[in-house]
Design brief:
Structural class: alpha+beta
Shape: elongated
Helix content: 55-70%
Radius of gyration: 25 Å
Oligomer: single chain
Largest sheet: 4 strands, mixed
Distance between the termini: 74 Å
Strand order of the largest sheet: 1-2-3-4
Order of helices and strands: EEHHEEHHHHHH
């Protein structure tokens, strides 16, 4: 996957890169923007640029979210060489995932914490009007909005809505999303790491299937994209569980090999006895 990535620039020593498939996402939304603008007699080019710019604006907060993970990981001495942007979001690529449940919990929750911190800052510098935010949230979820309800969002309210959705969505306990990793960390405080990962991944698969069904049959505006996202989560969680299990089995084999080598160690005498010569 790394061979398909394009390096952009470094921030605080962390390489920011974008996966090649990310441009497919931009192209898709640009095409939708063109179609929507043309259907109402507006400029298709303006609609395409506006829609693509909205995606780039959204990913500013994705990057901030991933930097929350990265800063927390660095606090525990874990290197984060790169943050990779994907069509489904971002990924802070760490040199290792801590086996300490508390450390994993802190690193994981640091991402959503950034989103909620952004909301707090926006509330300081701009009035918080719940009506348009909640109306847009209901519309996003495919729920009916009452007639006459104010739905126009100013920039601060739009930023609040984006970060509210991003922060809450990442807290869903679907492994390997943030909520799922927090669940795994909580389970690992009482269970073996592999078993905790298995339970978290199993719960994630059930919830991912529920998410796919809700996305397809609840008629949300982005139902197909949401269904694809939950489908990716389903397979990503299973893949990570297999990786954790394989690593644990390899570590166990190494421990057994070292134990056998120690058991077979031959201690040589410091001095050989004198030999009789004829």
């Amino acid at each position: 996957m790394l061979n398909w990535s394009i390096r952009l620039f470094r921030v605080a020593g962390i390489q920011l890169a974008v996966h090649s498939t990310f441009f497919l996402l931009l192209a898709y939304f640009a095409w939708e923007g063109w179609q929507d603008a043309s259907s109402v007699g507006a400029s298709g080019l303006i609609g395409a640029l506006s829609s693509a710019s909205s995606v780039l604006f959204l990913f500013i907060f994705v990057i901030m979210h991933e930097f929350g993970h990265a800063i927390a990981a660095r606090h525990y001495g874990i290197a984060v060489p790169q943050i990779l942007l994907l069509p489904i979001g971002g990924m802070a690529q760490m040199s290792a995932i801590p086996r300490n449940p508390w450390q994993e919990f802190v690193i994981t929750i640091a991402g959503p914490a950034v989103n909620f911190a952004v909301i707090g800052v926006m509330m300081i510098f701009a009035p918080f009007h719940t009506e348009p935010i909640m109306a847009n949230l209901r519309e996003f979820l495919g729920l009916q909005v009452a007639a006459g309800t104010e739905t126009d969002l100013h920039w601060p309210q739009l930023i609040m809505l984006i970060n509210l959705l991003m922060g809450c969505f990442n807290l869903i306990p679907v492994f390997p999303m943030d909520g799922g990793r927090m669940l795994r960390a909580a389970l690992a405080s009482r269970l073996p790491y592999v078993k905790a990962t298995f339970i978290a991944a199993t719960i994630a698969k059930v919830l991912a299937v529920v998410g796919i069904l809700l996305a397809l049959f609840w008629f949300t505006p982005a139902r197909y994209q949401t269904a694809i996202l939950f489908g990716f989560i389903y397979f990503a969680g299973q893949t990570e569980y297999r990786m954790v299990k394989r690593r644990e089995e390899e570590d166990e084999r190494w421990r057994k090999t070292l134990d056998e080598l120690h058991a077979r160690t031959i201690v040589l005498p410091s001095e050989l006895p004198p030999q009789n010569t004829p």
